[in-house]
Structure formats: structure tokens, C-alpha cells
TrEMBL record:
Enzyme Commission code(s) on record: 5.2.1.8
Entry annotated with the keyword Cell membrane: no
One Pfam family named in its UniProt record: FKBP_C
PPIase FKBP-type domain: residues covered: 6-86
Localization, UniProt: Cytoplasm
GO MF term list: isomerase activity
Protein name: Peptidyl-prolyl cis-trans isomerase
InterPro entries: PPIase_dom_sf, PPIase_FKBP_dom
Main location: cytoplasm
Reaction(s) catalysed by this chain's protein: [protein]-peptidylproline (omega=180) = [protein]-peptidylproline (omega=0)
Gene3D superfamilies documented for this protein: 3.10.50.40
Keywords from the UniProt entry: Chaperone, Cytoplasm, Isomerase, Rotamase
Keyword Chaperone included in the entry's annotation: yes
Amino acid sequence: MTIAPQRVVTLHYVLSDTDGNVLDDSRARQVPLEYLHGHHNIVAGLERALEGRAEGAELSVTLMPAEAYGQRNEALVREVGRSAFPVDDLVPGMRFQTPGDDGPQVVTVVEVRDDSVLIDSNHPLAGHALRYRLEVLGVREATRAELAKGHPLPPGTDPGSVEDRKLP
């Protein structure tokens, strides 16, 4: 079976920057990635590179920023009041999940000032070219419940316990 929309793909990957520094390794964590193809569960360039591949395929892909996490947008670096944070001991590099216009987003603390905090809402990998080494472990048809939710469900999930996504 080949990778196509509405199929669940299981794979191992090693993500590195263009200098060869490993940023993430699913095999080292002993947790393969499982995603629903065609549902924007992974970056677009990676999904395009995997389309049509079959179980056992191994490939290397280099993605430019536009195909991965996008270009950095300096307008997403801004100052907010210290009261916006649930902790007093803020240090640069801390990350927090906040509500955003398109759902939850992660912000990174850049600088802590007396009354304010400089934050960056860019994805930490925005603006970076990325290299992936991939091994496709499995491809299967998604269940109705997975299609309704838009992502793979844990094994043994009772389909009756899954609520379909509501249309706007």
C-alpha cells in the first residue's frame, strides 16, 4: 500500500539542520511518528515528499523554510506585560502555550524586562532549512473515527467514543 490521502503512515525520522546537527530523532526516543496523510498533520514539504511511497521506503529530504515551518516574521516578536505570564521567575528560552487567532500557539521568552517581556511567536524552526532522513514503517487505511478526528487514534479506541468534528 502506498502513502496517499486518508491513510495512516508510521515512520521513523531523523531531523537535522543543514550543518548536520540532529534536532530530533524518533528512533532514539523509540517512538515512531504516526500521522494521517492529507490532513496537514506534518509540514507540507514532507507530506509531498512521502506521497506515493510504500512501507520500507527510505529517503532523505531537504526542505527550505517555505516548505517547512515558514520564514521568520519579525512582526511576531513583540512586547507584552509581565502579568500575562503565570510564573514570576521568567528566563529567556522559556516557552508557553497561549491562545491564538488560529488556535493554541507557543511563544518563546526572548528577554525579561522590569514591567514587560519580549516574546517570539515564530515557530522555533521558522527560517531554517531542514534535513529529514525517513524510513516508512507502515501504511494503512484510516478508520472512520480517525478521519472524523483528523488524526490517528490510539490502538483500541472505541469508535463510539469519538465525536465527529463539527462543520462551521
